[in-house]
Fold this protein.
Amino acid sequence: MDFGTIFTRERLQAAAVAATLALASPAVAQDYPSADETLDWTIAFGPGGGNDIMARNIIDILTKYDLYPGDIQAENRAGGSGAVGWGYLYTQSGDPYGISTTSGSFVTTPLQADTPWQPEDFTPVALLTTDDLVLVVNRDSEIQNIEQFIEHAKANPMNIGGTGTVNVDFIVPTLFAQKAGFEFDYVSFNSMSEQTTALLSNALDAMVGNPGEILGLIESGDLRPLVFSGQSVPDALAGVPTMGELGYDIGVSMPRGLILPPDAPAEAQEWWIETMKKVVETPEWGEYIRSNTLTPTVIYGDEFGAFLSRTKNGFGEVLRSVGAIQ
Amino acid sequence: MRIAFFLVVLTGAIFYSYVAFADLGFLSRTGRLGPGFFPRIIGVAAIVMTLWALVDELRARRGPGGAFEQWRDVAVLIAFALGYAVLLRLFGGFVATFLFLLLTLSVLNPGRRLTNGLVAVIVPGVVYLLFDQLLNANMPPALIDLPI
Amino acid sequence: MDVFSDLMMGFSVAISPINLLYLLIGAMVGMVVGVIPGFGPSAGLAILLPVTFGMDPTGAIMMLAAIYYGAMYGGTITSILLNTPGESATVASTFDGFPLARNGRAGPALVMQAAASFVGGTVGVILITILAPMFAQVSRSFGPPEYFLLAVMGMLTLIVMIGSHWKLGVISALIGFALGTVGVDLETGQGRYTFGSAELIGGVYFIPVAIGLFGLGELFFAFYTGLHRTGTGGIVQYDRQSRFWPTAEDWLSTRMTMVRGSILGFVVGVIPGAGATIASLMAYSTERSISRNGHNFGNGEMAGLVAPETANNAASSGAMIPLLTLGIPGSASTAVLLAAFLLWGLRPGPLFMETNPELAWGLIASMYLGNMALLAISIFAIPLFVQIIKVPYRILGPTVVVICAIGTFSVHASFIELYLMFAAGVIGFFMRLYGFSPAALVLALVLGPLAEEALRQTLTISRGSFMIFVDRAPSLWIIGVTVTLVLLLPLLNRFGSRNAASAESAGG
């Protein structure tokens, strides 16, 4: 597998840029996007996850309202807590036809792994929403509410599953545990479905997840929600307390937005900002926010870039304080 | 040749193990199995198994395998296939495929110029129609555009 | 919803014109791939996976599944007419298939193999229909400890069944494991063997490796063995008028063979690590010891053809069960099929049939239809496939190189992956040449990371104690089954491989 070194990233990038320029540069200047170009939509996580659901919702809206003239090819490039997918987008530098959605790992992965890219490298389009995590246990569990959970966890340490290492999935329960005064073992999984299977099989004591991904199992009674990390509880989780209400406010949530490859043409960035302004006005988007229990928080362009930078520094402090990263 | 292949595998296994022992921790910060746990086991097992198989091999000492006849065509095909990989980068999917087929067939299927020429034109054409037009997938783009 | 209404819903999905078209294309392509010597389901799936890229997932998965089980039908045609198995799972079909053809019974042999394949395939799908929902229910009690044990079971079975070249099989699997560790470590986020390259963060890409090993590697090996030079001189001619159809005796004498072959094949197929090749060899030897005409096996006995044919098709169906309900591939070809699911954003597992009922049941329903279509195709289109056998291999060879290359590139438009595919092709050739097992490598590449992650999750959950494996009832069951298999399979295998020294690559 020596080819990675024979063709260094730089050369590949240069070649990709050269090829893109040769093929597409006049088209970009005049009319972006061109109907002949296929939009290469990277989803940096596996299927069924929050990132995947959001990307596919946006794509459905773009298609339904004919907002994007060409074909859109969405692909799950999962792995390395998002390092793979966004690493791929990074190699598309300068290409106006690469695009991706972000989530918490977009900020945390470069903090803990030696990724070649940083969140600031990409061309920011918009922050669209934040979503928060819910702590759940299996229906068979003797734990009925969060007070019992904390009491139980203080007596004998429990394990909590989440997706990815050193991720918001890890930060949220870690901060909560610090404030509530218990300890736990974090178990890292590759995907939401593996982690849900582990909890359903009683291998895990508890797990955190985006409500949108496990709402079905919560509604069917298979999983029992205990506490929510957001500021206000969504309708679907009525009756579940927030961490703030318990007096353990952690103030961390997962930023979900849209980015283009590094150094994408300004026309492309402008076009996507204008387009996303239309997307967030559609009833479908409202329905997506509602059904996935998200908090709409919309900021555009460079303001989103600044937000990413701030969040990254904030997360870095948290992770360093718990000793997860150096 | 056979021994050489075993030695290549052995070298790979030694390098793999070296990285596993030098760069990857056996246990993680929290005292659980670390990133180097499996690689070390795999690396050591690969070295042991390869050495074992190599010893078997040396003991068996079979004669030189495969006649020249047998090797000629496969060597041609492999060499041309690797050349094709380079051509694809330079000239893109359509031209490279045409050149590859024409050259390979002229060696493997000599004398039948008409058939070879037809295959060399029709196959890239069909592949182009299938991938580029019908399936809307990517054909390798050309780095150098030929004036055709 | 009960099974019947689920299945009816599946049929309503499968029967839509476009899906039916995909299904038929898949069945035809599968047969063609099977007919080409050296190319079996894993090669066919790997090479054609990129072609299905622009399609809707349901149609694409149906088509790929049809290629997968269709290859089992096609593979036998050359076993009978040429004494050259299309792939390892039809090696056992040459033992009596070719003698039958030489005795002037090529027509009946071809029809009987199609019928046997149909019976095996259909019994297999019926068993999937009944058992898959039950398996899915049981697998809901599976967590990381069980997943680790299942992956271990798969690898152990594979290695035990490799037989004579077991050391080389183990080395092949270790190479697969080693490649599987490349990339960012799930638990610590540390890069392993990435050497600073962004291309390696996500690990070694599976699809180019599979296309290279199975597509190019097998092609190069076929050139080495001289398939392109021998041409088609050896085709047995057969009479399509008078003695084409099997006699009543052929049907009557093999009816129990079909039943036994189907059930044995299915059970072997369900076991992770065993596959169609092993199933066909085991069915052949079992039948030889049971049959009254056992002594005549090898001289053109119809039961000797029917047994491996029902078994290898039933095994292909059986292998779908762990794939759909656990997300664990049991063979190299189902590993490629799993890659296809993942490419479409579908993750098979205990919740898969519940969350994607239309796709899951549509797929199962399509397998009933696919087997019927294949039965018709393989009886009435035999002359067509004989023509395909006659296409000179030296022209087919370079064309396959082209399809592998363009196909690989079309997946991610990556030249790195293209070069990886060519490298895997050359390595695959030398592996085949020197008796290694590319199938074991590919299966290990999928099962290795699964086992590692599951073990590390398990030990975090149990706080470092291995007792968790005996404390949990499902784990204990899996350990029991694994021990039984490891003790039992070598016996059956020794029994089976007396005649089958030529079937080297396990895993189907």
About this structure: The radius of gyration of chain A is 20 Å. Confidence is low (pLDDT under 50) at residues 1-29 of chain A. Chain A touches chain B at residues 15, 18-19, 23, 38, 71, 73, 185, 323 (CB under 8 Å).
